[in-house]
Design goal:
Length: 457
């Protein structure tokens, strides 16, 4: 396995600390609003990475946190006159529903920041004790310049980063240096707080992930994931905290690119801020269409999403589904068939090269084409080819042969298609045509093939 490592800025051999085992920490959401397509891309990137690694034989331990205390949650609670835990619990449930709808596997562990406050305090104490951090009335800050390679992940020197920091915001007078950042924030009126050796307060965001990841994995871990928007400051600061505490942190860093909607960067100000639910509501196949679009774009490239791209992806999904139905209609037993060894080896090779999903899914399409030909010709390779398509797409989390959301519909349409076949056999062509018209009205096309009729949406 080879992987692009943000730290070394090149594709490197991926060698986990323990052979055959991968510990993966992916930054999760701050829960205070509807999850949007950026959340979907982020979570799905690590879902696909995990699924492929598991398919390839690794034992993966996937941890993704929930940030359940932060400024946005506090502001929303204030605005709605409810408590912060009420806001966080409500939106975490919405987030998990959206992830389930997108067939994203739940992480093995989903730590919540508020459950790790003691670990965070202990972590900060270590940093205060070794003088990499200092306490003020406003909270505790990390002394960034005490960490020599602080900017290693973002490939910037202290001075280059300080220029940016100085230009961006008014410098907090409590800081010794503009680059320093808060590990612990002193209590402000009306905010949720926890007692600490530095007075009541709450943790900063970066110490949350450092304390949760190391709290769970102990002595470092293999792979840290997140969006490219987290490289600086979030991941840079998480790492700085670990380095300052003398702790081993992540061995490799993986970052997924952002996305454009209809050619424009997704942003609230552009009003093209699509929620996952908007996309799911638009069409019952969009859960899988979205995953296919993601697979067709390498995770380090900007993902282009739009009405047309989703429609094209749905058409491609239907080709997969139609193949399975056609194989079923031809009574091909693909459940116990051997996979095509060449296709599997090719797939593994492109996927082991930094998760080459566009090439991987292209191989699945090529096998799909061959499978359709084999079914039509009654070739005995059909069962193996169908099994291969199902295995390769499945290893990437793409369900084929019908989505959960359209499951009930499928049975009804199957029954109508069967009734039409029966009508034709009884030479009741008026009834057969009536059923076909009804199916057409529902957006279902029927194709009569030598092995029986195939329908698709
Ligand atoms: Zn994080």
């Amino acid at each position: 396995m080879r992987i692009y490592d943000t730290m070394s800025r090149k594709i490197v051999d991926f060698v986990p600390r323990k052979e055959g085992q991968v510990s993966l920490y992916a930054c999760g959401p701050t829960v205070y609003d509807h999850p949007h397509l950026g959340h979907a891309r982020n979570a799905m990137t690590y879902d696909i990475a995990r699924r492929f690694l598991e398919w390839a034989g690794y034992d993966v331990h996937h941890v993704a946190n929930v940030t359940d205390i932060d400024d946005n949650i506090i502001n929303r609670a204030l605005k709605e006159g409810v408590t912060e835990p009420e806001v966080a619990q409500k939106w975490e449930a919405v987030y998990i529903d959206a992830m389930d709808a997108l067939n994203i596997l739940p992480p093995h562990e989903r730590p919540h920041a508020t459950d790790f406050v003691q670990e965070m305090i202990d972590f900060v104490q270590v940093l205060v004790d070794n003088e990499s951090a200092y306490a003020t009335d406003a909270g505790v800050y990390l002394r960034v310049r005490s960490i020599e390679d602080y900017g290693a992940l973002v490939h910037r020197t202290h001075d280059e980063l300080a220029e940016g920091a100085g230009a961006r915001v008014e410098v907090d007078p409590n800081k010794e240096d503009p680059l320093d950042f808060a590990l612990w924030k002193a209590a402000k009126p009306g905010e949720p707080t926890w007692p600490s050796p530095w007075g009541d307060g709450r943790p900063g965001w970066h110490i949350e992930c450092a304390a949760m990841s190391l709290g769970i994995f102990g002595d470092g871990f293999d792979l840290h994931g997140g969006g490219t928007d987290l490289v600086f400051p979030h991941h840079t600061n998480e790492r700085a905290e670990a380095v300052a505490a003398g702790r081993t942190f992540s061995r490799y860093w993986m970052h997924n690119a952002m996305l454009n909607i209809d050619g424009e960067k997704m942003s609230k100000s552009l009003n093209n801020f699509a929620t996952i639910q908007d996309v799911l509501n638009e069409h019952p196949l969009n859960d899988r269409a979205l995953r296919l679009l993601l697979l067709q774009t390498h995770y380090r490239k900007t993902l282009e999403i739009g009405v047309d791209a989703l429609a094209q992806a749905r058409a491609a999904i239907e080709r997969f589904d139609a193949m399975v139905r056609k194989a079923d209609a031809a009574n091909i037993d693909y459940t116990t068939a051997e996979r095509d060894p060449n296709a599997v080896a090719e797939f593994r090779e492109v996927m082991e090269d930094d998760f080459g999903t566009p090439e991987g899914i292209a191989i699945a399409f090529e096998v799909l084409r061959r499978a359709n030909g084999a079914i039509d010709n009654g070739d005995e390779s059909a069962s193996s080819l169908v099994a291969t398509v199902i295995d390769l797409t499945g290893s990437l989390g793409l369900r084929i042969g019908g989505s959960q959301q359209s499951g009930e519909d499928d049975a009804e349409i199957d029954a109508m298609v069967a009734a039409r076949t029966a009508a034709k056999e009884n030479k009741d062509f008026a009834e057969a045509d009536r059923i076909r018209d009804e199916l057409t009205a529902r957006g279902i096309a029927i194709e009569d093939t030598p092995s029986g009729p195939i329908w698709r949406r």
